[in-house]
Amino acid sequence: MGLWESVGVSLTRGQALLDDVSITGPGDEGTGVYATGTGAVMMKEVKISEVDKGVEVISGKLMMHKGSVAFNGGHGIYLKKGEGVLKDVSITGPGDKGTGVYATGMGGVMMKEVRISEVRTGVWVKNRANAILMGGEIGFTGNYGVYLDKGGAALKNVRMIYTGTNDTAEFIKVKGGIVIAEDIIITSTTDNGQGISVNNGGQVWLTGTDLKGVHKGMTITEGIVRMFGGEIGFKGDYGVYLNQGGVALIAVKMTYTGNNNEAEFIRIVGEDTTNAVEKTGKVQKNAVVVASHLTIDGNGYGQGMRVVDGGRVVLIRPTYTNIYNGMNITKGAVYMEGGEINFKGEYGVYFTRHKYNIT
């Protein structure tokens, strides 16, 4: 089936059922399936190719079982105030642009065993939309694997692979909203990209999540990250960077694979005023890290932790092994109970203006 007036199938109201249909566009123009209003589109083993956008649904419903979408421009699947259910679907982009699945408005999308590849951004969720991803894979070359802007996302058993060469690319970007992820495997094939980025009050809960071969582990400029189990393997500047907010690391393993003595496993640069009496009316600031049974291995390089501007740290039985330097505390409060620090460089603990306690 070809396109008629730039659209393969167009639905305003009612329902459409497509079974074992192929929709082919002219190359980089048009939309395979377009639905608006209260319409519902149900597709089984439908193949869409050679289009600018694969499927566009506005205030309608989409159900897609098996099949594939190969697009050359904007989006594979576009949902605006609509709802989508995708199962065992393959979405392929042009390689250097486009978004696999885009959801905006108050709608949402549920994906099971969906494979997204050759896109600039894998899944983009904004304006209080929601996304649920179960299984499947996201392979991206550009900016983001999953971008959440004021909405919600839940991921379970999802594989994310970055094949680009940009150090600032991000697997999961949270700009407000909440992400809950379990048993996620994040891999950079080029030692580039960042695992997690959180700002604007976003929250991320990670359970059994592995970050492998990334340039940086995670950056939290304003938000909260809680990580239970899993691993952070990085080669660049730092494993965890906290400016404002909180980080909890429970039974997490961190490994540095680079060769820079100044690389840092944990860097805290945010001012903490939670114990101060604020008479100026300013918003209270906090930068707190709590880590229990944290394991750090620097392969002979890197620094375990640096606290710069008033952050607070609680360490319960950490193990720092094979690192160059231990901890550098310029200004802040650090409490360490048990554990060990094995270093080969200049110091185990270096402090200037501080509160530091080891028991």
Radius of gyration: 23 Å
Q: Helical content, roughly?
A: under 10%
Quaternary structure type: single chain
Uncertain stretches: none
**pLDDT averaged residue by residue:** 91
- Distance from N terminus to C terminus (CA atoms, Å) equals 73 Å
Category from helices, strands and their pairing: mainly beta
CATH architecture: 3 Solenoid
**Under CATH, the topology is which?**
Pectate Lyase C-like
Could you characterize what this model shows?
With 359 residues, this protein is an all-beta fold. The protein has one domain: 3 Solenoid (Pectate Lyase C-like). Helices cover 0% and strands 63% of the residues. It has no helices and 40 strands. It has a 40-stranded parallel sheet that branches. It is elongated.
Entry keywords:
359 residues; Pectate Lyase C-like; 40 strands
Short recap of the structure:
The chain is an all-beta fold. It has no helices and 40 strands.
Mind sketching the topology for me?
Blueprint: E1 7-11, E2 15-19, E3 22-24, E4 31-36, E5 40-44, E6 47-51, E7 53-58, E8 61-65, E9 68-71, E10 75-80, E11 83-87, E12 90-92, E13 99-104, E14 108-112, E15 115-126, E16 130-134, E17 137-149, E18 152-156, E19 159-162, E20 170-175, E21 178-182, E22 185-188, E23 194-199, E24 202-207, E25 210-214, E26 216-220, E27 223-228, E28 231-234, E29 238-242, E30 245-250, E31 253-256, E32 264-268, E33 287-292, E34 295-297, E35 303-307, E36 311-316, E37 319-323, E38 325-337, E39 340-343, E40 349-358
Protein name: Right handed beta helix domain-containing protein
Organism: Bartonella bovis 91-4
InterPro entries: Autotransporter_pectin_lyase_C, Pectin_lyase_fold/virulence
